[in-house]
Structure prediction request, 539 residues.
Amino acid sequence: MKKIFVLLVLITTSSCEFFKEKVDMVVINANIYTVDDDFSKAEAFAIKNGKFVAVGTSKEIRKIYTSDQIVDADDRTITPGLIDAHCHFYRLGLTQQVVDLVGTKSYDEVLKRVVKFQNENPKEFIIGRGWDQNDWAIKEFPTKKELDSIFPDTPVALERVDGHAYLANQAALDKAGITIDTDVTGGEIVKNDLEITGVLIDNPMQLVDAVIPPRTIEAKVQALKDAERLCLNYGLTTVNDAGLNRSTIELIDSLQQNGELSIRVYAMVSNTPENLEHYLYQGPVKTEKLNVRSVKVYGDGALGSRGAALKKTYTDKFGHYGAMVTPTDEIADLARRIAISEYQMNTHAIGDSANAFVLRVYDEVLKDEEDRRWKIEHAQVIADSDFDYFKNGIIPSIQPTHATSDMYWAEDRLGEDRVKGAYAYRTMLDNAGMVALGTDFPVEQVSPFLTFYAAVTRQDSDGYPEDGFQMKDVLTREETLKGMTIWAAYSNFEENEKGSIEIGKFADFTIYDKDIMKVPAAEIPTIMAEQTYVGGEVR
Prediction:
């Protein structure tokens, strides 16, 4: 009788398993923030063919589904895969191949790093990036004098952290054909006593770019793979690259199709005649991992290099207003041209003058259009009278760490009254109904946890200021997670395929070592992404 009973148990168990649906993976015993419409919680989900097929309690999922891969999350926190709504993915990879100047505390430290790099990696043209004079004791632009002395014959171009200025030595200026008489609109060739200092702001940088030796295909592929590794390690599953040329987009597509690149990319096409002629004529390009349906346009420059276009003069440089990188008539023409295509227009606008103009153009061009989801990238300084434009379907694409990086000197640039309309994330959210959140890496660090922390505390990683910077514009944790998942997906026209853990969507998710929604705020920057899944596969 005992043998018969055991046999019956085995038959019953086998029958139960037989009638369960076989899936590729089951995750149980998790603390899941689904980020669905109700911001509901769950314990488990099932995945098949790279998509979620069920979400619920562990008991419900185990009752219906079976799999050879069952992951017991042991109460660890899971969210949808994180989306960086504004970054420079390809550039991040390229920075791994040049002199790293991020965090330098003086111009002397910059020079030492360049010399060390060249001694270890001799180059015919030295490139570096990451310096920021606002972090130095003497907060003034450097000059090329020392570079000329150290490198009299080797061209050197060192990019400022925001990507809106170069420090170039005389050898690089000569190679680019830049002289005291060179005239370039949309930026500045900085002079001192009628001599070129070597600092080039915005458009003049393109003259140097034109003479930098082209990178090999191997270097480009390595840059993309390096960038992917860094992003996946931080739990990012989709990146919005804010400005790519056709050749790089096609390289990304090739690597994705061959299984050499797993991360999903929302590509903003750089505003060049060649790119626009190809993509606006061809129409959007969409695969499971690549989405090409937006154009990146530069309105003005950056606030840190005083290139942001302001309505009134800079407080710390009287008579200086910044500049539009792209002429206003050209922006208006571009908007009309893009409006008759299926493409989205995403415009970099930082100063209040640039934001006012771009918002007004969007409003005029889109007045008879529905659901175009055009974005303002950065939207850093906005006059009170211009926030209402966001009520008309324009999406603010913002980077919370910019507020906590810039707060040390932003008031110097803008003055006490004008700075109140800067980094106004709550005000934009209240008007637009959503915000898309990113980092702008490598201008800022890759970590989305620093983004999250800055959004919910308005403090830097040292906890300064103690009471937070302009706390009227702080975001809640729920709003911040939405901005890094479902709202970012919506801003990409991808809310039906990603951004939340729901049936039918891609199984992109991140497992953390701490509960990002409940951990003490001071611990948010230390959170680690223990595993990152793209399409149900750990990456």
The first strand starts at residue 21 and ends at 23.
